Amino acid sequence: MNSKQERFWETKTLEEMSHDEWESLCDGCARCCLQKLEDIDTGVIFYTQIVCELMDEESCRCTQYDKRSELVPTCVTLTPAKARELNWMPDTCAYRLLVEGKPLYDWHPLISGTYETVIYEGISVKDQVISEKEVPEEDWEAYITEKFE
Predict the structure, then answer these.
(1) Of 29, 49, 85, 131, which one is least surrounded by beta carbons within 10 A?
(2) Cα–Cα distance, 34 to 141 (Å, whole number)
(3) What percent of the chain has pLDDT over 90?
């Protein structure tokens, strides 16, 4: 990056960002697409190694991104307000980092120039997950992991 203006995330609030700027904040790690389990007594959220049925495990992209909330009613369409509220967003997530006043990591595609750095740094769920189509929901607890917290 050669100009401060190109680093829009450092000068704009989440609300001021264009649609394209907002979408470019996503690093493509797909951690938000992991199925999560909540302990009803403590409220603690546990990540599993199970991804949404719409996830293309090879590309770590949603196969039906534009219709995801319609096809999967529990899918969250992230907004600035939701980015401030959701406590389960990964601690590496750009939306969460910006809400918390923190900088993006050097491996983030907006800084590195490539999504490959997300995979190289082990942030991506690529090659580490299984589709929910392959695991009955009653067995999800067996797939709880600390890897993506």
Answers:
(1) 85
(2) 13
(3) 74
